[in-house]
Design goal:
The complex is a heterodimer.
Chain A (H helix, E strand, L loop, with lengths): L6 E4 L9 H11 L5 H22 L15 H6 L1 E10 L6 E12 L4 H5 L2 H4 L6 E5 L1 H7 L1 E2 L5 H21 L4 E5 L2 H4 L4 H17 L4 E5 L9 H4 L6 E5 L16 E7 L9 H14 L4 E6 L8 H21 L2
Parallel strand pairs in A: 1-10, 3-5, 4-6, 6-7, 7-8, 8-9, 9-10
Antiparallel strand pairs in A: 2-3
Helix pairs in contact in A: 1-2, 6-7, 7-9, 11-12
Chain B lengths: L18 H11 L10 H5 L3 H19 L3 E2 L11 H4 L2 E13 L2 E14 L5 H9 L4 E2 L1 E4 L1 H6 L2 E2 L1 H4 L7 H29 L4 E5 L10 H12 L5 E6 L4 H4 L9 E6 L15 H6 L5 E5 L11 H15 L5 E4 L9 H23 L4
Parallel strand pairs in B: 1-4, 3-6, 5-7, 7-8, 8-9, 9-10, 10-11
Antiparallel strand pairs in B: 2-3
Helix pairs in contact in B: 1-3, 8-9, 12-13
The chains are: A alpha/beta, B alpha/beta.
Chain lengths: 326, 361
């Protein structure tokens, strides 16, 4: 008897780029040339347009997180013992984030993250994909000015993020993605590796009904698979622009597999045949019953037009694999 | 011009002053004296070239009055360091804006054909600067690796067959960098050198973003400067320099490393410690020592600057190899803040000089 083919889904895994119109509006807002009301109207229109496209193409929606200045900012701005620090380079890119400064035990503020989610996403929690920084990446990207040891900070971040997931679960959100690229760009070792597993365990315990995803990119996941296999999450995401399929091996039973099959570091569109072939290779080496396809690195590394073209290409690949099978 | 230890230099772009700002600064800098007398009407409504000349003269007077020994024009004629250069080339298309941070964006080009040069660039601005200052002139040029890294690579990547994974991306990037160096940078630098440009800084801020591509940074630099007789330096900011060493040392024609240090120097972390590595590798080149954090408004004091210079001198084991500069361009700071920082820098260099001479009070 042939094994049951995996369920295949596709969708966004990162904030979407701001449209040229939003670029103009946000610049104008900065320079006092437009009103906050006009900017709000432009954001609502852009979010509505994007969520409509996502609903048409995919099962999950994000509404693009267009208002977020960076992935860490909502936490840096709203959690207790955090403040917003200096501009810092985001991994190996030419984009920057404001470094969160931690001055004491991290304490989440109930409702603060949910309140910062894009409005169209809040209206569609069951189909929504909430994006949060993974605890290890958050640890590595913040400046720890507290007297708390790194591994303890990491565990506390896991507990607080777990409470965040529980709150989001109660609001009806079905999927929370933890974007955790530093797991592969500068993997944790020793005590920090143990604390990483503990942090994700705290997240998993908080709300078993919510599907949790850890998404990696920026370097090969191959050497880190033994650690990723220990994380009690519903799905692990691997960027195939950085990871050769030959580096993959079977994962834990029941764990889903996310594959980054769009490379936002080039505007060159991926070809259907090459992309389908690499997906088939990857799934052959790391079998799964639940496959997710998306951009590997954040798609907002691209301007809007090529990002939209790639999104359509993602849908084409998804449909092709659904039609022809893996 | 400072004689003796710790001469000072600019390192990058300044905020471009508005007409109002130019009017406000004129009584302090007297930069209009550098230009032929302009009618009031022209000053009120300058055309693009006149405004660029005004801004360049302003920047020169600003840096001179702050006390710097090596100056330039604050990159007054460039949109910014990437787009200005790319617009002098063929093979690129712009497809829209990409966010740098918050509501700050830049236009990132896509290379869609073989890269080519419309005409060598930067000569006009160099000749203007040379004619309007008696200080040493150091010209900054965006390097081939950064131009490639900050672009989307379509043309060269499409030449790679099959799935575009890590190996294919790297091979395509190498081709792109080498073409930029040979077809764009080398003829541009050659023309500048032929016209008397003696001190040239190759800006490679992207060098630190992919440490495993440090060899491409070096290959691009070596190809770009091959056979040219000038004093070349390489400016790299916001990087873990230890990750680029020793590969970077193969840039044999580079005579100075201009790096950022102040950004990572605080009471809990010694930002200058990496200099010890240069000593361990036996590297004898000079260092452009970043002593001003360009991302914070908080002003460095002359004492902090002097302490940083002294510490770096101990680590290098040779104070004579130190030039003093901001970490990077000061364009994100207001003109007032940037000026105060530069004044603190030159005062700090003077203080460090007196400490070395044993004449500090």
């Amino acid at each position: 008897m042939r094994p049951t083919p995996p369920a295949i889904e596709a969708g966004l895994t990162s904030p979407f780029p701001r449209s040229e119109r939003l670029v103009g509006v946000t610049r104008d807002l900065d320079r006092g040339r437009t009103s906050p009301e006009a900017a709000e109207k432009a954001f609502v229109e852009a979010e509505t347009e994007l969520v409509t496209l996502e609903e048409k193409l995919f099962s999950n929606v994000t509404a693009g997180y267009l208002r977020w200045n960076d992935l860490l900012r909502p936490i840096a701005e709203s959690w207790g013992s955090f403040r917003v620090g200096p501009l810092t380079r985001w991994l190996e890119t030419n984009t920057f984030y404001r470094q969160p400064i931690l001055t004491g035990p991290p304490r989440r503020t109930p409702g603060a993250i949910a309140g910062r989610l894009p409005p169209p996403l809040r209206q569609r929690p069951a189909r929504g994909r909430v994006l949060l920084p993974g605890p290890y990446t958050l640890l590595r990207c913040l400046e720890n000015q507290s007297s708390i040891a790194e591994s303890d900070v990491l565990l506390r971040l896991g507990q607080e993020l777990g409470d965040e997931v529980a709150e989001l679960g109660q609001a009806g959100f079905a999927t929370v993605q933890f974007t955790d690229p530093v797991l592969v760009t500068a993997p944790p070792e020793g005590q920090l590796a143990t604390a990483t597993v503990d942090a994700y365990t705290a997240i998993a315990r908080s709300s078993p009904k919510v599907r949790t995803v850890v998404w990696t990119y920026g370097s090969s996941a191959g050497p880190v698979l033994p650690l990723l296999d220990r994380l009690p999450v519903s799905m692990v995401g691997i960027d195939l622009a950085d990871t050769e399929p030959e580096e993959l091996r079977p994962g834990p039973p029941g764990q889903g597999l996310g594959l980054g099959i769009l490379d936002p570091r080039t505007t060159l569109p991926e070809t259907l045949a090459d992309t389908a072939a690499i997906v088939r290779d990857a799934v052959r080496l790391r079998p799964t019953d639940h496959l997710w396809l998306g951009p590997g690195a954040p798609i907002d590394l691209l301007p809007t037009r090529p990002a939209e073209e790639k999104l359509l290409r993602l849908s084409d690949v998804h449909q092709m694999l659904l039609r022809e099978g893996l | 011009m400072t004689t003796g230890l710790f001469p000072t230099q600019e390192i990058g772009s300044l905020q471009k002053p508005s007409l109002e700002a130019l009017r406000e600064w004129e009584p302090r800098l007297h930069f209009l004296e550098k230009l032929e007398r302009l009618p009031d009407e022209v000053l009120r409504h300058p055309d693009v070239t006149t405004l660029q000349n005004l801004r360049a003269a302003f920047a020169l007077a600003y840096l001179e009055t702050a006390g710097l020994d090596r100056v330039y024009d604050g990159e007054a004629r460039r949109i910014e360091m990437y787009e200005y250069a790319v617009r002098q080339m063929t093979g690129f298309e712009f497809q829209g804006h990409v966010r740098s941070w918050d509501s700050k964006y830049y236009r990132k080009g896509t290379i869609v054909g073989p890269v080519g040069l419309v005409a060598p660039y930067h000569l006009e601005e160099f000749e203007f600067v040379r004619a309007h200052t008696d200080r040493q002139v150091k010209l900054p040029v965006t390097g081939p690796y950064t131009l490639a890294d900050w672009s989307y690579n379509e043309y060269y990547l499409a030449r790679q067959s099959g799935w575009k994974g890590h190996a294919q991306r790297r091979a395509a990037q190498r081709e792109f960098v080498v073409d930029l160096a040979r077809r764009v940078l080398r003829p541009t630098l050659q023309r500048l050198v032929e016209h008397g440009c003696r001190i040239i800084q190759i800006d490679e801020p992207a060098a630190g973003t992919h440490p495993d591509e440090a060899d491409l940074v070096v290959e691009g630099f070596n190809e770009a400067v091959q056979g040219l007789d000038a004093e070349f330096s390489i400016h790299i900011c916001y990087s873990r320099y230890q990750d680029l060493l020793p590969t970077l040392l193969e840039a044999k024609a580079c005579r100075q490393w201009a790096w950022e240090f102040a950004n990572r120097d605080d009471p809990t972390h010694d930002g200058y410690e990496v200099l010890k590595l240069l000593r361990e590798y036996g590297d004898r080149r000079s260092v452009g020592l970043g002593v001003l954090d360009v991302h914070r408004d908080q002003l460095e004091t002359p004492e902090i600057v002097a302490e940083r210079i002294g510490r770096a001198a101990r680590y290098l084991g040779d104070p004579a190899r130190i030039w003093v500069n901001p970490d990077c361009g000061l364009r994100t700071r207001s003109l007032e803040v940037a000026y105060a920082k530069l004044r603190a820098m030159t005062a700090g260099a003077g203080l460090a000089r007196r400490v070395q001479d044993g004449t500090a009070g």
